[in-house]
Automatic annotation (TrEMBL), chains A, B:
InterPro entries: 5'(3')-deoxyribonucleotidase, HAD-like_sf, HAD_sf. The active site is at D7 (nucleophile), D9 (proton donor). GO terms for biological process: pyrimidine deoxyribonucleotide catabolic process. GO terms for molecular function: 5'-nucleotidase activity. This is 5'(3')-deoxyribonucleotidase. Belongs to the 5'(3')-deoxyribonucleotidase family. The lineage of its organism: Bacteria, Bacillati, Bacillota, Bacilli, Bacillales.
Length: 174, 174
């Protein structure tokens, strides 16, 4: 059975909507997802980098994120044909471990928690495929990287790209 | 550069001494490491399994464990010749994430925390070597398993075995 490793933030968990909402509220701004094409919020507002990162360091930030559209249904279907691992770069936000674990248990309860991986450098992941929104994780990944579209990565080229979970489904099951 | 993945509990962190001390205190027993040859404490006292496991589920249990003799010095030396990752089956004790992370930061501060991996099923680990005290992790591991001696595994045969960190040093650097 081939194995698919799946990133959390920006792929199954919508951190961006919450980050933007908090930022706009606290700074009286109206930045939209459109404004973030090709960049992350910290690149758009570099002088506020610390404040932006602090949202993500808040222990409960990741606990109530929205689930990305169709990800539950498609991953459930994929899990009948592939071994599924959730591989998240949690070491960047060590305060988030518990929230991320609880979120996965709540929204992806059909997965075995022995298949959750909290890591940093994803070159440690032994899988046939890695679905991720950050191209840096593909550099030393031994399998096939699949770039999940997120505003910040829309101008990246040279990668297999999927724009949503229906396209993931088509890639693996068609 | 070849990569060595290293388990925490029973390999760099001495959970057994603390577990035994707590158990002996609470149950007025005098079980020694000698009594645990070939078995774990839950196999020696199966009717107390829940209580024994509860020690490990206590969020701070892993925070103040003793460092296994010579592990710091040898890993520091190995890190000059190999890529080192710490790979711990933390999903078995999700309450332990923070304590484990902080313990690693305290005692192995010379390692990059991007090389810490909290996982369950270690077949996800992409490394050339895995030093571990549980043979079950070698079953589907793609590299070379190296069994680190612990009382519970002394009767396991058919594995490359190291009895202490000086033997790890000899294996990799001689």
């Amino acid at each position: 059975m081939k194995r698919i490793a799946i990133d959390m933030d920006g792929v199954i968990a919508d951190y961006l909507s919450k980050q933007l909402a908090l930022f706009n509220r606290d700074h009286n701004e109206n930045i939209t997802v459109e404004d973030l094409k090709g960049k992350k919020l910290i690149e758009l507002r570099p002088h506020l980098k610390d404040e932006i990162m602090n949202y993500l360091k808040e222990p409960s930030f990741f606990r109530d994120l929205e689930v990305m559209k169709d990800s539950q249904e498609v991953i459930k279907e994929l899990s009948e044909h592939y071994e599924i691992f959730i591989t998240t770069a949690a070491m960047e936000f060590p305060t988030s471990f518990t929230a991320k674990y609880e979120w996965l248990r709540e929204h992806f309860s059909f997965l075995n928690d022995m298949n959750f991986v909290f890591c940093g450098d994803k070159s440690i992941i032994n899988a046939d495929y890695l679905i991720d929104d950050n191209v840096r994780h593909f550099k030393r990944f031994s399998g096939q990287g699949i770039l999940f579209t997120s505003p910040h990565n829309v101008y990246e080229t040279g990668y297999v790209r999927v724009n949503n979970w229906q396209e993931v489904r088509d890639y693996f099951l068609k």
